[in-house]
């Protein structure tokens, strides 16, 4: 894999780079938010490893900026912050996973492999359809009633999971574990927020409701086909 590491701490940066190169990955490094975003916009990467505390900016803002600029490369956040609300905020701005410092190098590689695996599984050579909804998993595109709709990585992965489980109720726990490979307090509204994002984007191009909330159980995407 081709990996971009955006980290200002030289010891952490050197460690991550050494671990990745030992596992035969190609690594570029950036010490600032500005340089990191420049690399991300000009080059192609399989994953971006991003520190939250950078000398010229906030990792949250950088991740959001990349998503706003249609940079869809998976992002793994590195941070010393361990609070659940920080992790949720990372996911809300478009990150794909989160690991706290200090971290075990084996866990780091396992999370990178999990992100890569989910991306590969979501990027197969199949078409998923549900009424007016159509996902091309080879091109990672989504159309509603023939109109292309842009999704973030998190929105796309959530939609693909729901479509694979179409006409079946899936719980918040299942979504947390299978879409983001994380375990957190599902009493938070994080998953509801992303369900809301998907509903809004679908409603912009269709009069039909596809995603239903099943009280005290979870969510279901209803399809006739």
UniProtKB/TrEMBL annotation:
Residues 125-223 form the OmpR/PhoB-type domain. Gene3D superfamilies: 3.40.50.2300, 6.10.250.690, Winged helix-like DNA-binding domain superfamily/Winged helix DNA-binding domain (1.10.10.10). The modification 4-aspartylphosphate is found at residue 51. GO terms for molecular function: phosphorelay response regulator activity; transcription cis-regulatory region binding. Transmembrane segments: none annotated. It comes from the Bacteria. This is Response regulator transcription factor. It comes from Fodinibius halophilus.
């Amino acid at each position: 894999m081709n990996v971009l590491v955006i980290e200002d701490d030289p010891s952490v940066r050197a460690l991550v780079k050494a671990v990745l190169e030992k596992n035969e990955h190609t690594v570029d490094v950036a010490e600032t938010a500005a340089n990191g975003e420049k690399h991300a916009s000009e080059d192609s990467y399989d994953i971006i490893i991003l520190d939250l505390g950078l000398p010229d900016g906030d990792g949250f803002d950088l991740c959001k900026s990349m998503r706003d600029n249609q940079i869809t490369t998976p992002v793994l956040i590195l941070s010393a912050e361990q609070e659940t609300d920080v992790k949720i905020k990372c996911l809300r701005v478009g990150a794909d996973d989160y690991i706290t410092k200090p971290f075990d190098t084996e866990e780091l590689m396992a999370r990178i492999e999990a992100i890569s695996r989910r991306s590969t599984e979501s990027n197969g050579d199949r078409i998923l359809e549900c009424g007016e909804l159509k996902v091309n998993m080879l091109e990672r595109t989504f159309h509603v009633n023939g109109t292309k709709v842009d999704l973030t990585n998190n929105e796309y992965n959530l939609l693909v999971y729901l479509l694979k489980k179409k006409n079946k109720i899936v719980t918040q726990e299942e979504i947390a574990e299978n879409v983001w490979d994380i375990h957190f307090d599902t009493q938070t509204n994080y998953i509801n927020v992303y369900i809301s994002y998907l509903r809004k984007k679908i409603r912009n191009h269709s009069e039909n409701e596809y995603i239903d909330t099943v009280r005290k159980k979870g969510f279901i995407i209803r399809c006739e086909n």
